[in-house]
């Protein structure tokens, strides 16, 4: 994957930075939503509220409980054939396939049973070791957080 700054999400977390290559070729509406929310500061300070050892780390709920989303409407599913593997970023949702909003998860390892049932929209390209350090729990006590989420193209030159 080539690093296109407009399609790069950088998560500054309490465990270190995580760089994610966004995949508008797979899920254009979901990528646009992630970019919009990141640019609005929606993800800043949000907890990793559901973190299951050997499975995934979930975030994106403004309440830190898994019960909320953004004020933007839910998205229609953009299921694709990209496999859920280590570092895959995919949208969380309720039982309805068209209920994804702001919550997403990062896979710790292969989770192929999710393939074509959840919308894959990105892949961790750097900092997976920081994802591995995120505190586990359901719910997580004193959870790790996204300190700041930003799009690579928006970074000011140093």
Q: Would you mind describing this structure in some detail?
A:
- With 158 residues, this protein is of the alpha+beta class.
- The chain has a single domain, classed as Cyclophilin (Beta Barrel), CATH 2.40.100.10.
- Helices cover 11% and strands 27% of the residues.
- It contains 2 helices and 8 strands; from the N terminus they run ββαβββββαβ.
- It has helices spanning 28-40, 128-132; strands spanning 8-13, 16-22, 48-52, 56-59, 88-91, 104-107, 120-126, 146-151.
- The protein has an 8-stranded antiparallel sheet.
- A hairpin with a 3-residue loop joins strand 3 and strand 4 (56-59).
- The radius of gyration is 14 Å and the shape is globular.
- The two termini are 24 Å apart.
- The mean pLDDT is 96.
Total number of strands: 8
Query: How many angstroms separate the termini?
Result: 24 Å
From the helix content, strand content and strand pairing, which structural class follows? alpha+beta
Rounded mean pLDDT is 96
Shape-level CATH architecture: Beta Barrel
CATH top level assignment: Mainly Beta
CATH topology: Cyclophilin
- The fourth-level CATH homologous superfamily is Cyclophilin-like
Order of helices and strands: EEHEEEEEHE
| Order of adjacent strands in the largest pleated sheet | 3-4-6-5-7-2-1-8
> What is the share of helical residues?
10-25%
Query: Rough shape?
Result: globular
Rg, Å, rounded = 14 Å
In percent terms, what proportion of residues is strand? Answer: 25-35%
Q: Report the total helices.
A: 2
Main sheet makeup? 8 strands, antiparallel
- The tally of domains stands at 1
- Point out poorly predicted stretches: none
């Amino acid at each position: 994957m080539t690093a296109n700054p407009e399609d790069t999400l950088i998560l500054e977390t309490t465990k270190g930075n995580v760089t994610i290559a966004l995949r508008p070729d797979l899920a254009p509406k979901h990528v646009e939503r992630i970019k919009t929310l990141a640019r609005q500061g929606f993800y800043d300070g949000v907890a990793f509220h559901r973190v299951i050892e050997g499975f995934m780390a979930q975030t994106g709920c403004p309440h830190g409980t898994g019960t909320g989303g953004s004020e933007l409407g839910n998205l229609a599913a953009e299921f694709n054939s990209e496999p859920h593997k280590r570092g895959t970023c995919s949208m969380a949702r309720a039982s309805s396939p068209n209920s994804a909003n702001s919550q997403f998860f990062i896979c710790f390892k292969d989770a192929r049973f999710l393939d074509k049932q959840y919308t894959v929209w990105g892949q961790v390209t750097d900092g997976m070791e920081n994802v591995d350090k995120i505190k586990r729990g359901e719910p997580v006590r004193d959870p790790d957080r996204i300190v700041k989420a930003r799009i690579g193209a928006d970074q000011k030159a140093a």
